[in-house]
Please model this.
Amino acid sequence: MKIAFVGKGGSGKTTLSSLFIRQLAASHVPVVAVDADINQHLGAALGMDESDAAALPSMGAQLPLIKDWLRGSNPRIASSETMIKTTPPGRGSRLLRITEDSPVHEACARTVALEGNEVRLLATGPFTEADLGVACYHSKTGAVELFLNHLVDGRDEFVVVDMTAGSDSFASGMFTRFDMTFLVAEPTRKGVSVYRQYKEYAQDFGIQLCVVGNKVHGQDDLDFLREQAGDDLLVCFGHSDWVRAMEKGRPLPLAELEPANRRALETLREAADGAYDKRDSERYMRQMIHFHLRNAESWGNAKTGVDLAAQVDPGFVPGEQPVPQTA
Ligand SMILES: Nc1ncnc2c1ncn2[C@@H]1O[C@H](COP(=O)(O)OP(=O)(O)O)[C@@H](O)[C@H]1O
Ligand SMILES: [Mg+2]
Model:
């Protein structure tokens, strides 16, 4: 299943994504971790040393390879130049799986040892000023969107994306690509304002969103978040000395995380499992096409010089055999 951690910078997206990923690794579940945050820190939070984290391949730089592989023999996509970040898979496209090897994994993923297991880590690569505009053709997160849209994933295998809650993800539809979105919020007005914005978009598309409080000290913080987020507030993490020790370069095993924070992690897992049960693959595909058509019209057709609406393969759902079309 696909999980996103979003929120304001500094709220703890990377910290909580990395804890969630650790917990999955500790329970022997296959995980692909994706660092799509403006500040690329997920590798370090997963315990990579600085030079290894800096040497992670950038998915943005691998975009031509990613497009070429995913396009496969799909007759609706004439070239990788005409494939944009929202181009949906169709018959002939190559699909990705979490535990399989592919040239995309080979080019972009690195293995991280975690809690006696291994997880795969992919990273968009650092963002530049130019990447932070709206629906930009060269957007780094485009590689992540293509990855997610071509992925066939089941219940007990996870993609966990640490990402920025920015206008880019709303313009492209990236925010609709997840079974569950955990919005990390500190008990501050700024923390909660990101939630409000996200919630507005989320409601219109029926996406499952939960608020995860972080750095919550005591009842007043809790009351504030409850008042602001109501039933959307799933659980809160408190200040963690375990996280602090990690930041000091003294990593501890997950088993030593504070019991209350461990329980909070379990709550996240349960919420994710519950969200998966409500997965609607047809809606997922419908929204993918909706955003593709919107992007095609607003910039894609002009940029590529072709009618990108023709890339849509009606009735195709990744992982399911399309019904053969009769003449
Ligand atoms: N529960 C916590 N306890 C202690 N420190 C935390 C906690 N959550 C986050 N931090 C610290 O706060 C800072 C920002 O967290 P980070 O996960 O990098 O935020 P983001 O990814 O949202 O920008 C980091 O120094 C991190 O170690
Ligand atoms: Mg971060």
